[in-house]
Amino acid sequence: MDFTALDVATLQSIDPGYFIGWGTLSLLVAGIAQGKGRSGFGWWIGALLLGPVALFFLVLTDRKEGAAKGD
Known about the structure:
The protein is mainly α. It is built from 4 helices and no strands. It has a domain of 48 residues. The chain starts with 7 loop residues before the first helix and ends in an 11-residue tail after the last helix.
């Protein structure tokens, strides 16, 4: 199997649920990032590219100094 290029048939054969789940995960990561005082947009882009890996790194990061804490 050649993984060098994705053709239209390959993309059409992927279950749409994966795209919906990946997009939902990216929005979740953006929300968590904003809650930690970080760039929601930057983390959203990162999550679109890295998915669960971005969430893992975000969970490991500390809250930014001066960020409001939600009680």
